[in-house]
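> example.struct
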């Protein structure tokens, strides 16, 4: 699933390729499934319009237009973007395409069709409708503290709550807690001031690192827990304890379930 780092990479790509170009046509392969509004309404809003800027909030991407409408894009499980000109270069899973007058096209790819595209009045209106918290990439310790105060739920479960810090997915939560030295099952409300400050700092650091690596996880620093998580998709390797050592203390990495989600942690470093 595209997480915050991937969506931020998509946003920057669109900024570099698709702004300031008049839209001549809009294609949607399966509008009833992919659009959050009627296809004719979507086309009327965009044909003759142009994208002028972008913003991201968590995993949600917003494209601003010259006429004021804001296109919302959630990439679902398998979303991606492409920019091309020749018909022969059309990606296989191009579900929605914006045609520009210069002959190029911006495609939203989605092999499993779980993504959704809509239009909103503004980012703030959308945020309030969806009850989204402050973006995880820029969240402050004060904002994080508001979401965690007096909560008895495990900190891992609350980090995945998009009302607290939208954009934190499962592996990101594990990585952040590992780097902060916090056990994933610790009650969120038990964190004291300095721990919340450290947690907010590690949220920002992990996300910035992932974005700088363009979400290519094998390029993450050697001290990151993600290199142990990779074996989750390789059953044969997963049985080899040598591949699951903590990069900090060499203890075995543990795998458990918190809030129904697979969770990796070091029981020595995350007491």
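> example.seq
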């Amino acid at each position: 699933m595209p997480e915050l780092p991937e969506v931020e990479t998509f946003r920057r790509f669109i900024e570099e390729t698709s702004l300031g170009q008049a839209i001549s046509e809009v294609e949607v392969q399966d509008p009833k499934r992919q659009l959050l509004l009627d296809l004719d309404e979507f086309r009327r809003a965009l044909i003759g319009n142009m994208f002028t800027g972008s913003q991201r909030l968590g995993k949600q991407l917003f494209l601003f237009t010259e006429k004021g409408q804001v296109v919302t894009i959630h990439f679902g499980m398998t979303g991606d973007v492409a920019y091309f000109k020749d018909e022969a270069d059309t990606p296989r899973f191009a579900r929605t395409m914006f045609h520009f007058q210069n002959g190029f096209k911006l495609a939203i790819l989605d092999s499993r069709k779980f993504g959704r595209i809509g239009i909103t009045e503004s980012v703030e209106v959308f945020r309030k409708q969806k009850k989204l918290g402050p973006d995880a990439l820029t969240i402050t310790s004060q904002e994080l503290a508001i979401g965690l105060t007096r909560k008895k739920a495990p900190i891992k479960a609350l980090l995945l709550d998009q009302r607290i810090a939208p954009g934190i997915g499962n592996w990101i939560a594990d990585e952040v807690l590992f780097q902060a030295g916090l056990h994933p099952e610790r009650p969120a409300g038990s964190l004291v001031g300095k721990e919340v400050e450290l947690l907010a700092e590690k949220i920002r650091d992990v996300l910035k690192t992932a974005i700088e690596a363009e979400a290519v996880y094998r390029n993450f620093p050697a001290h990151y827990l993600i290199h142990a998580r990779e074996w989750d998709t390789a059953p044969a390797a997963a049985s080899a304890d040598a591949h699951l050592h903590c990069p900090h203390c060499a203890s075995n990495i543990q795998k458990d379930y918190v809030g129904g989600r697979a969770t990796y942690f070091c029981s020595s470093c995350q007491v």
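> remarks
The beta strands are 23-28, 51-57, 60-65, 70-74, 79-84, 94-100, 105-110, 116-120, 254-258, 261-265.
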